[in-house]
Amino acid sequence: MDKTVETVFTYRSYNLQDTEQLASAIAAASTAGMVIGLDGDLGAGKTAFSQGYARHLGVKGIVNSPTFTIIKEYEGRLPLYHMDVYRISLQEADELGLDEYFYGQGVCLVEWSSIITELMPPRHMHIYMESVGPEERIITVTAIGEPYGELCRELIKKWG
Asked: Which residues contact 66 (CB under 8 A, 6 or more apart)?
């Protein structure tokens, strides 16, 4: 039986630059096939994180939340599949064939991933953003299995 270990890192962001710094570090360590779930209240900074992540992955141009398109594809150092599952049901998400993206050659960034927890790969990274002030956020990064655990341990070494 595969026992998947969780590694947790908590990061305090005081402004957009701090959030981008975290997004940059995660983007730099990203490899093909990575899946990152992103959750938090409306206005917590999910789209700002996604934009910083995409920029540091080498995506050119504007990256916005794919609220009505569900999945947007971008080209960078790796293909980026930016998903927003806020407006769909678990069944609708299941019918989209997300596994093709999850187990593909790109990186998946899934906003509102808690809606489709059952469909997420057993090993992935989960980022939860919580507003604690006008610009201040507590960002909890949970790595479920490898290679996510190693990335999380590197974040802990750098900022922990």
From this structure: 72, 82, 83, 84, 111
